[in-house]
Design goal:
CATH architecture of the largest domain: 2-Layer Sandwich
Number of domains: 2
Structural class: alpha+beta
Strand order of the largest sheet: 2-3-1-4
Oligomer: single chain
CATH class of the largest domain: Alpha Beta
Mean pLDDT: 90
Largest sheet: 4 strands, antiparallel
Number of strands: 4
Radius of gyration: 20 Å
Low-confidence stretches: none
Strand content: 15-25%
CATH topology of the largest domain: Alpha-Beta Plaits
Order of helices and strands: HHHHEHEEHE
Distance between the termini: 35 Å
Length: about 160
């Protein structure tokens, strides 16, 4: 019987330089045409298509997406929240995570190791809405929220992209 580390190691997909270039190009423009991709990586369209299908099949590419400007959607405030949990019961924790995942204003939700348990980013149109969102969350899940630390993003200078 193989150990858990051995099983996880098998799930890791080695990618070569061409796959890395394809991923880099798609991360800049997920709608890039196969003809353009093929030209950029100097392979046939069929070869690029097969490589992309393999990357999708191996779950290296999870989805193709867009980048949206929240200000243009009327939600210019990005509130970053670090949450330390207390008195955690699995059912209550799962309910908390499910509610946050269903909330269209929540754009990032991460479990963390370290001083805090969760990292949440939500968008709001103004401080009144931000306060309302916080109040809703704390009212509904205050019994498991031990500490809540937040910061409002005033300007984004750089937003991380995965570069390959």
């Amino acid at each position: 019987m193989k150990g858990k580390d051995s099983q996880n190691a098998q799930k890791i997909r080695e990618i070569d330089g061409i796959d890395r270039r394809i991923l880099g190009l798609l991360s800049k423009n997920a709608r890039m045409k196969l003809t353009s991709l093929a030209r950029e990586v100097r392979l046939s369209i069929d070869s690029v298509k097969k490589r992309m299908q393999k990357l999708e099949q191996d779950k290296v590419i999870l989805r193709y997406t867009i980048s949206v400007d929240p200000e243009k959607l009327g939600r210019p405030l990005g509130i970053h929240v670090y949450v330390k949990l207390k008195d955690i019961v699995k059912e209550r924790y799962d309910e908390f995570i499910d509610e946050l995942m269903k909330d269209h204003r929540v754009i990032v939700l991460m479990n963390m190791l370290g001083e805090y348990d969760l990292f949440i980013v939500f968008l709001a149109k103004d401080v009144l809405e931000a306060d309302e969102i916080k109040r809703e969350i704390k009212e509904n899940f205050g019994s498991i929220i031990g500490e809540w630390k937040e910061a409002v993003v005033s300007k984004v200078y750089y937003l991380e992209e995965y570069r390959f």
